[in-house]
Amino acid sequence: MCKPSRSHGLYPDAARDAHICTGSAEEAISTAEPSGHGKVAAWVYSEAFVPEDEVLLRARERASELGCPAVLPGVGAVLRVLAAATNAHAVVEVGTGAGVAALWLLRGMPYDGQLTTIDREVEHQRAARTAFAEDGVAPQRTRIIPGRPGDVLPRLADGAYDLVLVASDPLGYPEYVNEALRLLRPGGVLAVDGALLRDRVADPARRDELTTVVREVGRTLRNDERVLPAMLPSGDGLLLAVRR
Predict the structure, then answer these.
(1) Number of domains in the chain
(2) Are residues 172 and 238 in the same domain?
(3) pTM of the model
(4) DSSP output for 98-148
(5) What is the span of the domain harbouring residue 228?
(6) Structure confidence by residue, pLDDT tens digits, 148-162
């Protein structure tokens, strides 16, 4: 039996519990079908396509208890693929949370790679350390920095990173994305989680501050000649951009 997650309100209600099932993707689809079909079932299937193990599920539960965001499983699987495909030895994560995204990234990175993860909440990072220990992550593979990302990111080296994940504080996305583009080497990948903001970004009638900020980040990257962008519907939207 799947244990429901209480961490998110970011996805269709019919899929709310299915996305963290340790069972098959077919079970996830059957969970979604009573109140939806077609695109909803396809979304649920893709989210459950790579099941989360017990370490990830416990990290997700800690995130729920702390009230901090965690990337959904479909996004996690994409992040792992990106880390592996780019042979990412140096990764920056904005928003440690309870370590869910970090675990996915570390599992795709080479064993001598290092993840630099930033969060202003020390309690969140304490939970992440627990997740890393449970997964057998060597201490030297993570550099955990407490502090406001806007203060920490400018101290990191230009062009020294293979992948940057922005997954915290959407109102800060413009600042964090700008810094991320500076940090990335040519061929490096920027990933911005929550880029569809519960479908609000795609609705032109939604013009509240948060929606406008996140929508503008997408527009800016789409028009930036320094990158090649793409929007994936995984999770709550994953905006990707490869540094030219």
Answers:
(1) 2
(2) yes
(3) 0.86
(4) TSHHHHHHHHHS-TT-EEEEEES-HHHHHHHHHHHHHTT--GGGEEEEES-
(5) 73-243
(6) 999 999 999 999 999
